[in-house]
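[job 0412] stage=fold_complex status=start
inputs:
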Amino acid sequence: MGIIERKERDKQEMRLKILETAQQIFIEEGFEKASIRAIADRIEYSPATIYLYFKDKNELFFSVHEMGFEKLILEMTIAIEGITDPIEELRARGFAYMKFAFQNPEMYDLMFIQNAPMESIKESSVWTCGHQCFELLCQTIQKCIDQNYIRFDDIYIASMSIWSFMHGLVSLKIRNRFQKFGEAHVNELMKSSVEQMIAIISK
Amino acid sequence: MGIIERKERDKQEMRLKILETAQQIFIEEGFEKASIRAIADRIEYSPATIYLYFKDKNELFFSVHEMGFEKLILEMTIAIEGITDPIEELRARGFAYMKFAFQNPEMYDLMFIQNAPMESIKESSVWTCGHQCFELLCQTIQKCIDQNYIRFDDIYIASMSIWSFMHGLVSLKIRNRFQKFGEAHVNELMKSSVEQMIAIISK
DNA sequence: TTGTTCAACTAAACAGTGTTCAGTAAATTT
DNA sequence: AAATTTACTGAACACTGTTTAGTTGAACAA
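[job 0412] stage=fold_complex status=done
writing structure:
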């Protein structure tokens, strides 16, 4: 009896369709404009239908942000292929992170700035994809500490610090707090900032 | 003829009343809950009245965020009183910044994370209060570089980097991305992170 | 004092949001 | 063929920011 299997497939397909449409709209027009009604309109279903596949908007965008993490984790993995020096690995991961943010600003915003995805795992649940991504950084930092290439001794303090530094740069840019530096130069300044920071924390 | 002066005073008073009520509601209940209607309700005027004093919600919250900057700038000024060593000054300013964020999370959010205040100065206008605050950091960094106490040579790269680091820490906390570390330990970890960073960039 | 002007204010509406629920219609099972 | 289950939706609810036409009372000029 393949009917229940086909139904299950249909259900997953529909879920994916909603997810991809949500992602598409919000990448093109931002989180604000990605309303349930706009998504429903584009897939030609009623808004109420979306609630048969997702508990609420937060849960829907939690799933979208998970797709973002899949991409970021992939890119941060590819970035270090063939690199042996731990500091070079750290640089590669840092620039992969920044590149992702530049190329997918709306997605970065959702993953690391917006409240929505975190609201959906408030209490009880866990931010698995976030931790997975953080783990990549920890692995690199671990190597740096082991080989005595970095001015940190604690992996978690180091990882927390470096992540915060990178996120600070990127999120101040995304949320327009670097207005002062001008759209034209800010990206170059940010890259210099990362480069200098790596030089300073290396030993 | 003091009538037009009294009217001007009344107008300013009303403006301030709206501003303070907006601040109050949003500090207590967050940005989302601080709706025009909620503010209007509390001051016992109709929502439309608010639009006689502010162009839109963005402009209203731009003014609220300016009050936040007045406070932050004051605290970051007081914090360094009596300190002569530039690195100690940097530490004091860093911890004053972090303390402000811990004690006024909603206001910090508005000042450095929310889009609203920046939307109201999009194009043409300038983020004066933000630049003023950044200038304080630059002054301290300048001293550090002049006295050769810090591993940076460029003031702007240094200031940008240190601000980004601090903002990254604070904003990841505020937007719940440090879930992993647990509510109980995260504040201590953040302080250690700042302490270590200062140790590393000092020379 | 009267009539007029002007400013402050608001009720009501518009267009949008997330979300819920009763009801329909078709597919599946008995 | 009848009963049940499933997928879906129209319409409503309670909100949001914002605009506009209209009211009311104070200030001014005759």
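[job 0412] summary: Chain B has a mean pLDDT of 96.
[job 0412] exit 0
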